[in-house]
Amino acid sequence: MMPPRGRKHRRSLPPDMFTNLPDNVIDLILMFLPCKDAVRTSILSKKWRYNWCRLTKPTLDTSLWETKKDFVDPVAKFTKIIDQILTLHLVLENLELLNAIEINAPMLRSFNFKGYISSLCLKNVPLLAKLSLIGKDSYEADYVDFANLLEESCPALEHILLDFWYAELFMESRAEAPARLPFDINSVTRFYLPHIMLMDSYGLSCALCCIRSFPYLEYLEIQVYHESGDDLTMRAGMIIFQYLLNSNAS
Amino acid sequence: MVKLKSNDDKEFEVEEAAVIQSEMIKNMIEDGCATSVIPLPNIDSKTLIKVIEYLNKHINMGKAAETGEEDDLKEFDEQFVNMGWEELFDVIMAANYLNIHELMELCCQSAADRLKNKSVRAVREMLKITNDLTEEEEQEIINDAPWAFEGPEIDDTVN
């Protein structure tokens, strides 16, 4: 980054010109800052205290809880940070370090996860309306134990997006997914499944299990992953899926 | 050509293809309100010259990708934001008023890059922010999120 040219300019800056910028400009600048820096602006002055809270998508990365110097357990540190951010939206991207995350965030509205993880548990998320779980682009099997994802019901959850390669949503039973999810998420109206593999009967049963668990579903979007199979097998898979879907709807 | 007038009464002619990167002016043209000079009461001539320089360079964003001029454009952008804070905020305010999304993003990204990893003291000094918090209030804010205020990357220098 190039430093501003000349000291003259800085000296002539009128006091609090930055503070008095319109909210949408401040929001955009905060959006381009790492979360830690954005949160740090809360101490600049009284006016700045809650500016960062308007950020619709604070993004956390591993550098926040990577503990090089101290010996605090990164998971403990991470959990603490999340607890402290009683924020509305949360985005986690490119996570590799953590095996297990527990999120206790009573104010959380939207949760966007992208990465590799073996266990994710949303504990106290009564306001969560939008959930997006995206696996890393790799051929390794990544999985989220969907059965244990939500500890209790999530009455506000309306949107779900699941995008896991070779999704293994239920760790316990590999042969077939349960008929319904073990928790109550009746409010889901929109469900997105961008990577369905028709030849993967386990993946299909997972998808159907979810669809069955959302009685008030209004919108369903499925993208079939183009498998290396001949057209006939593809079409057969599609027919089977449609049949299952229809029998499910009735 | 479209004529723009700054708040210090200087007129500038800009090609329509360049000026329609401003949503505001694009809408004015579409609504037939841009037949004569468009007065810009919030923008001085110094800032308007900068904005027009940007608009002219970015006139054919789509073409740049085809002809491999992307690097050139990137270099221009880097040079463009090499300005003092006050000038940067003036351009941001002008871009905000004219609704030029790409220019807003470029300048706000530059502001964020300059603030990244800076200590609270350094940011206050660089941007002349009057601190009206008491020591107790400051401590309370730090206690809310102590992780945000510590770390080896935090830089206390002012430039």
Automatic annotation (TrEMBL), chain A:
Domain F-box as annotated: residue spans: 15-68
Protein name as catalogued: F-box domain-containing protein
Source organism per UniProt: Capsicum annuum
Signal peptide span: none
Pfam family, one: F-box
InterPro entries: F-box-like_dom_sf, F-box_AtFBL13-like, F-box_dom
From TrEMBL, chain B:
BP GO terms, sorted: jasmonic acid mediated signaling pathway; protein ubiquitination; SCF-dependent proteasomal ubiquitin-dependent protein catabolic process
Presence of the UniProt keyword Signal in the record: no
Gene Ontology molecular functions: cullin family protein binding
Domain SKP1 component POZ: residue ranges: 1-59
Pfam assignment, any one: Skp1
Keyword Nucleotidyltransferase included in the entry's annotation: no
Protein keywords: Ubl conjugation pathway
Pathway: Protein modification; protein ubiquitination
Family membership noted in the UniProt record: Belongs to the SKP1 family.
Organism domain of life: Eukaryota
GO cellular component: cytoplasm; nucleus
Residue ranges occupied by any SKP1 component dimerisation domain in the UniProt entry: 102-148
Phylogenetic lineage: Eukaryota, Viridiplantae, Streptophyta, Embryophyta, Tracheophyta
SUPFAM superfamilies reported for this sequence: POZ domain, Skp1 dimerisation domain-like
The protein's assembly and partners: Part of a SCF (SKP1-cullin-F-box) protein ligase complex.
Biological role stated in the UniProt entry: Involved in ubiquitination and subsequent proteasomal degradation of target proteins. Together with CUL1, RBX1 and a F-box protein, it forms a SCF E3 ubiquitin ligase complex. The functional specificity of this complex depends on the type of F-box protein. In the SCF complex, it serves as an adapter that links the F-box protein to CUL1.
Signal peptide extent: none
Gene3D superfamilies named among the record's database cross-references: Potassium Channel Kv1.1, Chain A
Name of the molecule in the record: SKP1-like protein
InterPro entries reported in the protein's UniProt record: SKP1, SKP1-like, SKP1-like_dim_sf, SKP1/BTB/POZ_sf, Skp1_comp_dimer, Skp1_comp_POZ
